[in-house]
């Protein structure tokens, strides 16, 4: 069951468009908005603070549509979704439809529109480093994740020192698992992870080779996908002790989609648990529970 608040046909005047006259003269824009949230407490208490204030939502949308001009209404829709999800914690997801009535293009159109759906998603990441200041690279990667306005680091495992995986002779790794909440869709999140790796001098000359930082997207909610660029869940989860040990620490009962087994079950039944040693316990103190302030 999904509870929904709908604000339909909100009308504004803005200056969005790819044509110079659209940004000079302006035109009308309509916006439909559906907010996915739990309305049970509001229904039984009749208290405004248990729901989402529609007037506040309208004000946020108005500021975007009547604010700085964008060439694409796709961008306007993304800005609205990002603002709503970042400003209203009770909203778990939203559908945004931006409508441009009577568009100034050849042909007969009543309107053109774009509609997007965005939501808060729980994802799990694997972090690893085995070059130079291994601890420092883990901390810098976590800082970069937390600095992204569309990512929030919710939980971190302890840090484990692990034997290198694969045939390449190299130093031991420091590994950990991180739970994040993100507003990004999976491919956008993957690109963000690759950007962080690049900023921290990650290179890819040798498969399974040494690296300053490795950021693996392990799971993204209950999504299952297999493409050339992205496989979810990560296909190696069930075979890697350096993933399962810290994973079981923070999400033991998570059932991995497609595999249909809990993280703890996979860890307890993994053959060969050696090579994973506790290096620093997350004690809840300091930055991310791991690093001194």
Automatic annotation (TrEMBL):
<comment type="pathway">
    <text>Cofactor biosynthesis; tetrahydrofolate biosynthesis; 2-amino-4-hydroxy-6-hydroxymethyl-7,8-dihydropteridine diphosphate from 7,8-dihydroneopterin triphosphate: step 3/4.</text>
</comment>
<dbReference type="Pfam" id="PF02152">
    <property type="entry name" value="FolB"/>
</dbReference>
<dbReference type="InterPro" id="IPR006156">
    <property type="entry name" value="Dihydroneopterin_aldolase"/>
</dbReference>
<dbReference type="InterPro" id="IPR000550">
    <property type="entry name" value="Hppk"/>
</dbReference>
<dbReference type="GO" id="GO:0003848">
    <property type="term" value="F:2-amino-4-hydroxy-6-hydroxymethyldihydropteridine diphosphokinase activity"/>
</dbReference>
<keyword id="KW-0289">Folate biosynthesis</keyword>
<comment type="pathway">
    <text>Cofactor biosynthesis; tetrahydrofolate biosynthesis; 2-amino-4-hydroxy-6-hydroxymethyl-7,8-dihydropteridine diphosphate from 7,8-dihydroneopterin triphosphate: step 4/4.</text>
</comment>
<keyword id="KW-0808">Transferase</keyword>
<comment type="similarity">
    <text>In the N-terminal section; belongs to the DHNA family.</text>
</comment>
<keyword id="KW-0456">Lyase</keyword>
<protein>
    <recommendedName>
        <fullName>Bifunctional folate synthesis protein</fullName>
        <ecNumber>4.1.2.25</ecNumber>
        <ecNumber>2.7.6.3</ecNumber>
    </recommendedName>
</protein>
<dbReference type="InterPro" id="IPR006157">
    <property type="entry name" value="FolB_dom"/>
</dbReference>
<feature type="domain" description="7,8-dihydro-6-hydroxymethylpterin-pyrophosphokinase">
    <location>
        <begin position="207"/>
        <end position="218"/>
    </location>
</feature>
<comment type="function">
    <text>Catalyzes the conversion of 7,8-dihydroneopterin to 6-hydroxymethyl-7,8-dihydropterin.</text>
</comment>
<comment type="similarity">
    <text>Belongs to the DHNA family.</text>
</comment>
<keyword id="KW-0547">Nucleotide-binding</keyword>
<keyword id="KW-0067">ATP-binding</keyword>
<keyword id="KW-0418">Kinase</keyword>
<dbReference type="InterPro" id="IPR043133">
    <property type="entry name" value="GTP-CH-I_C/QueF"/>
</dbReference>
<dbReference type="InterPro" id="IPR035907">
    <property type="entry name" value="Hppk_sf"/>
</dbReference>
<dbReference type="Pfam" id="PF01288">
    <property type="entry name" value="HPPK"/>
</dbReference>
């Amino acid at each position: 069951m999904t509870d929904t608040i709908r604000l339909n046909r909100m009308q504004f005047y803005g200056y969005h468009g790819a044509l110079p006259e659209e940004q000079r003269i302006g035109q009308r824009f309509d916006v439909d908005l559906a907010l996915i949230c739990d309305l049970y407490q509001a229904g039984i208490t009749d208290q405004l603070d248990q729901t989402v204030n529609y007037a506040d939502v309208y004000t946020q949308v108005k500021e975007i549509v009547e604010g700085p001009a964008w060439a694409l209404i796709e961008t306007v829709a993304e800005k609205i979704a990002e603002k709503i999800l970042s400003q209203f914690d009770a909203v778990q997801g939203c559908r945004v439809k931006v409508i441009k009535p009577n568009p100034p293009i050849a042909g007969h159109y009543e309107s053109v529109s774009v509609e997007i759906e965005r939501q808060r998603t729980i994802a799990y990441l694997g972090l690893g480093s085995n070059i130079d200041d291994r601890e420092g690279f883990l901390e810098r990667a976590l800082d970069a994740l937390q600095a992204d306005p569309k990512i929030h680091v919710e939980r971190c495992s302890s840090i484990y020192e692990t034997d290198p995986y694969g045939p390449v002779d190299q130093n031991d790794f420091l590994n950990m698992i991180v739970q994040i909440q993100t507003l990004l869709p999976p491919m956008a999140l993957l690109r963000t992870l690759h950007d962080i790796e690049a900023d921290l001098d990650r290179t890819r000359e040798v498969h399974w080779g040494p690296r300053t930082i490795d950021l693996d997207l392990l799971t993204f909610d209950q999504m299952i996908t297999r493409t050339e660029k992205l496989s979810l869940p990560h296909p190696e989860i069930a075979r890697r002790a350096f993933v399962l040990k810290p994973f079981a620490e923070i999400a033991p009962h998570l059932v991995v989609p497609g595999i249909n087994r809990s993280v703890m079950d996979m860890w307890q039944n993994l053959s060969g648990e050696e090579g994973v040693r506790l290096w620093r316990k997350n004690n809840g103190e300091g930055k991310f529970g791991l690093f001194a302030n």
